[in-house]
């Protein structure tokens, strides 16, 4: 901006023109999604769908509901059902039994106290000391064992020279495995492009499908009752495309603490 432009802005506007960065209105590549902004709805949601499309829609809804029921049963089985329900009287009886068990002396402990003292390790004596001949033989046996191990190592080195073909095959298998892993990683990266990413602590969950049962389908738009919400549909679409972070409905409302006081002019003492 020239000096004349700066002077004009300061004279007439009173503040500088704010320049936004180049990436201000650009969607970041990290969270960019290739999903369309307006998705084509399921054909079974139509006001006059075919029998096959409507049955497919009902099957999808039923599968999702069955999956949720299985998850609830799993949580109940792994949390609530693991703990047995005990009444207050049974709990008190169990506590008394456990606390009174330490008051009763154990017969086995009394027998050990009354009997003679026995050490854990056997007693030693001068007669059991090894002689020089025994020490020499033990030393020779250790040397022979060490020599045998060294011979085995040398034999293994010689045999490894003849295993070059097997080593080459193992290296080829390792290269093939690494190439396969790289290919799988690339395919996984491509499949992750259209997935909803984790933008905050809340995970995005697909909303329930809008559907009508067989007797609710009228075949014309005049007598059809509306289902769903366009605003919510757009809201979930932006969450699915990583534009907005997923949110959770807040049931509790935080109320600000208001400080209340009486003005001096409205006090009874002041009026009197």
UniProtKB/TrEMBL annotation:
Compartments where found: Nucleus, Nucleolus; Nucleus, Nucleoplasm
Keywords, ordered alphabetically: Coiled coil, Nucleus, Ribosome biogenesis
Coiled coil: 52-79, 129-184
GO biological process: one example: ribosomal large subunit assembly
Main location: nucleus
GO cellular component: nucleolus; nucleoplasm
An example molecular function term from Gene Ontology annotations: 5S rRNA binding
Family that this chain belongs to: Belongs to the NOP53 family.
Protein name: Ribosome biogenesis protein NOP53
């Amino acid at each position: 901006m020239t000096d004349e432009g700066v002077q004009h802005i300061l004279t007439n506007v009173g503040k500088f023109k704010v320049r936004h960065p180049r990436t201000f209105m650009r969607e970041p590549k990290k969270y960019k999604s290739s999903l369309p902004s307006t998705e084509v709805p399921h054909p079974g949601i139509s006001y006059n769908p075919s029998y096959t499309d409507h049955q497919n829609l009902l099957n999808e809804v039923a599968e999702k509901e069955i999956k949720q029921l299985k998850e609830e049963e799993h949580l109940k089985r792994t949390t609530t059902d693991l703990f047995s329900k005990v009444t207050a009287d049974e709990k008190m009886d169990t506590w008394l039994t456990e606390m009174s068990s330490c008051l009763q002396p154990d017969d086995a402990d009394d027998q050990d106290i009354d009997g003679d003292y026995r050490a854990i390790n056997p007693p030693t004596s001068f007669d059991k000391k090894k002689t020089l001949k025994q020490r020499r033989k033990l030393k020779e046996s250790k040397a022979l064992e060490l020599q045998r191990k060294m011979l085995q190592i040398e034999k293994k080195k010689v045999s490894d020279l003849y295993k070059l073909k097997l080593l080459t095959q193992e290296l080829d298998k390792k290269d093939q495995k690494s190439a396969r892993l790289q290919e799988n990683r690339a395919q996984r990266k491509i499949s992750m492009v259209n997935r909803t990413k984790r933008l905050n602590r809340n995970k995005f969950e697909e909303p329930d499908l809008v559907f009508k049962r067989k007797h609710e389908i009228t075949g014309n738009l005049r007598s059809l009752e509306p289902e769903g919400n366009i605003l919510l549909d757009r809201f979930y679409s932006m969450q699915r495309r990583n534009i907005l972070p997923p949110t959770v409905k807040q049931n509790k409302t935080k109320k600000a603490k208001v400080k209340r006081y009486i003005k001096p002019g409205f006090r009874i003492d002041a009026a009197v």
